[in-house]
């Protein structure tokens, strides 16, 4: 999957990917991006746990 992203995900070249990353950085700022990624990671983890049917998964209440 990573090589697919590097080689051009959805027909985007490296320059377009860099431009999109710069725009995201300008919109959200450097301090907000780690928080967004942390939330995204939690969401993916919860989705995986739910799709496995794991009812005993721990929930982070931090």
In words, what does this structure look like?
It contains three helices and no strands. The protein is mainly alpha-helical and 62 residues long. The protein folds into two domains: 1-28; 31-62. The mean pLDDT is 76.
Short description:
The protein is an all-alpha fold.
Strand and helix layout:
Layout: H1 2-8, H2 14-28, H3 32-52
Keywords:
2 domains; 62 residues; mainly alpha
Distance between the termini: 31 Å
Class computed from helices, strands and strand pairing: mainly alpha
| Major sheet characteristics | none
Amount of beta strand: under 5%
* Fraction in helix: 55-70%
Work out the count of structural domains: 2
Q: Would you count the extended β strands for me?
A: 0
Shape: flat
């Amino acid at each position: 999957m990573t090589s697919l992203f590097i080689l051009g995900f959805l027909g985007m070249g490296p320059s377009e990917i860099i431009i999109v990353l710069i725009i995201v950085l300008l919109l959200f700022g450097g301090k907000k991006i780690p928080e967004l990624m942390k939330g995204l990671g939690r969401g993916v983890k919860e989705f995986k746990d739910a799709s496995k049917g794991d009812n005993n998964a721990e929930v982070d209440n931090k």
